[in-house]
Design a protein that fits this description.
The chain is α+β, with helices and mostly antiparallel strands and 180 residues long. 47% of the residues lie in helices and 13% in strands. Helix 4 packs antiparallel against helix 5 and helix 5 (89-100) packs antiparallel against helix 6.
Length: 180
């Protein structure tokens, strides 16, 4: 805390009433600075929290779900912002990447009027796939179909481990979970 009394001439510091007034004003200045910092954080969806997230969600027509994790809510807002304008493969890639917080490729099959969203840096099915699906359905042209391509571990990637090291895991854990 920066003491305001130190900014004044010495004769003020010697006065008990002046010192007490400046101490109280210093406490208020700290509170104001914290409020300003909190308010500034609400101006950007990547740093917004609480009431700021609600304002962003309301502005973009996203249902407010307070019980959801703030990081998830931020990703939804950023995805919605990125999804404004003409839909392109790059836009779909950016929206998907915002949801899964990882690398994504979008593979176009123009002859079949479809595309594939491939999760490159995520092993298994991302946790909020339903919300990503809803976001893609909202921004993609109605005549295009799409599907997901997930990445899983293969037996070859598990060769560095012994059966004993992996024996406590299910096949699903080995395919897409955390390894020891």
């Amino acid at each position: 805390m920066r003491e305001l009394i130190r900014e004044l001439p010495l004769h003020y510091q010697a006065s008990a009433p002046d010192a007490e007034l400046q101490r109280a004003l210093s406490l208020l200045a700290v509170e104001v600075e914290a409020s300003v910092n909190l308010t500034m954080a609400q101006l950007f969806p990547s740093t917004a929290s609480g009431w700021g997230l609600e304002l962003w969600e309301t502005a973009y027509g996203i249902p407010v779900e307070r019980e959801k994790d703030e990081q998830f809510r931020r990703a939804r807002i950023i995805s919605k912002i990125r999804g404004q304008g003409t839909t392109t493969l790059e836009m779909i890639r950016m929206v998907a990447a915002a949801f899964v917080n990882g690398d994504v490729e979008v593979i176009e099959h123009s002859g079949q009027y479809s595309f594939i969203v491939k999760f490159v840096s995520i092993i298994g099915v991302p946790p909020n796939i339903q919300d990503l699906t809803a976001a893609i359905l909202e921004i993609k042209p109605a005549h295009l179909a799409f599907d997901y391509q997930y990445t899983y571990r293969t037996w070859g990637q598990l060769q560095a481990y012994t059966w004993g090291q992996l024996s406590g895991n299910t096949w699903a854990d080995l395919r897409e979970g955390q390894l020891p």
